[in-house]
Structure formats: C-alpha cells, structure tokens
Amino acid sequence: MATIEECRAALDQLSDNLARAEGDVRGATALDRSLSCHITDLDRTFTGRLDAGRIRVDAVSPGPPSTKAEIRLAMTGDDLVSLVSGDLKFPKAWASGRIRLEAGFRDLLKLKSLL
Q: What is the arithmetic mean of pLDDT over 29-50?
C-alpha cells in the first residue's frame, strides 16, 4: 500500500508533468479550479488548486473531502502512484470504477484531452 508521502510525491510528479505539457493537454491544464484527491485506502484527502498548469496542494486532511471542490478525484494510493508512473491507464481505470473523477460538464470537456 502506498504511503501518504508516496501519494504526495505522485501528485508533485503529476504537477510537474502537467507543467511540461504542450498542445491540447496544456490548454486543459490552464484551468483555475479547486481540486481534491481522496485517497480511499488511506482515508486522506489532498486539497488545493489546479492553477496555471500546476497542481498546488494546500492541505492533507483525514477522511473524505469536507468541501466540494470543482474537480474531485478518488482512488487508492497505489492507483495514484501507478497512474502517474504510467503503469495504469486512466480510461481503463475510470471505466472500471477504480478511479472516480467528478467535475462540471465544461471542465470535463476540457479535461478529456488529458485522458
């Protein structure tokens, strides 16, 4: 099972990956939205913002998100680490329910280029 530190490192790596993105992917990351990522097996939630093509983590708190972020993710720590490393493909994990993504319709349309 991935640790909180490994999950934080994976989110930092994802942020770095997004910052280096180009084309359609770069356009999708240009959103300015609140973000939460609930790590279900550790029952911890990272909260912050997707802003200027980067993920900024502001806090880690126990339990599910206490407020409703504009973009919400939920998955196990191992799935987060595997997703960022490229071992887990988002479309398959999302279709099977291993990863949950919730956002407004317009945001989902923009984020689809990340998938």
A: 94
